[in-house]
Amino acid sequence: MTDQSFHDALRSLLVWDTTLPAFDPGSAPEAPLPLFRSWFLDAVEAGQTEPHTMQLATADADGRPDVRTVMLHEADERGWHFASHATSAKGRQLAARPDAALGFYWPAQGRQVRIRGRVAPGTPDEAYADLHARSAGALAAALVGRQSEPLESLTELADASRTAWERARATPDAPAPTWTLYVLVPTEVEFFQGDELRRHVRLHYSRTEDGAWAQRLLWP
Ligand SMILES: Cc1cc2nc3c(=O)[nH]c(=O)nc-3n(C[C@H](O)[C@H](O)[C@H](O)COP(=O)(O)O)c2cc1C
Q: In the prediction, which pLDDT does 145 show?
């Protein structure tokens, strides 16, 4: 690969090479959750690949940002749920600084959703129930553990994974002690609808002191 081929490929790409839906913020609900759920279903219907994956941004104890992809497990009145190991880098960052942000990008409809808030760990029972309602693969992955630790070799991973798969199949109720369900409790949620003429619509919700939601538009 040459520098030129990289730059040519980069410059040839477009975003939203499709008809984008209109978004009327005047008809948006009072709270962000119903709008999130409705946009999520729109993304599924539009054939958006993996709309249930999201970026999770955290900061370490020194305030340095970090980001990675995780799966959305639920979005309800409590907040946005995801799961991971408490002992992972993100788990340690969240324990030190629970402030975090989530980002969804659904290019099929030129939509982005950004969420900021505080992350609270759920109970061990909730983590157990959430994990054991999922696939054997999810359990095997959780049983491997040691997430974010340095790995000596891929052989070491293959051995640990084989053992974890055998255990997940033989003992489907096996506990994965560090596996934790987290809930991001939102204080701000922003909906971005891309527009062909670049008049993108940004609707920002922020939680007020009395627990209601205030809405405002933002310049794109
Ligand atoms: C599509 C996708 C989904 C993922 N889902 C999760 C998840 O739900 N939980 C998780 O712990 N890691 C998930 N990962 C792996 C994380 O992105 C990350 O590599 C891992 O959690 C370690 O992150 P950390 O070192 O910052 O803690 C996913 C990765 C991808 C690409």
A: 94
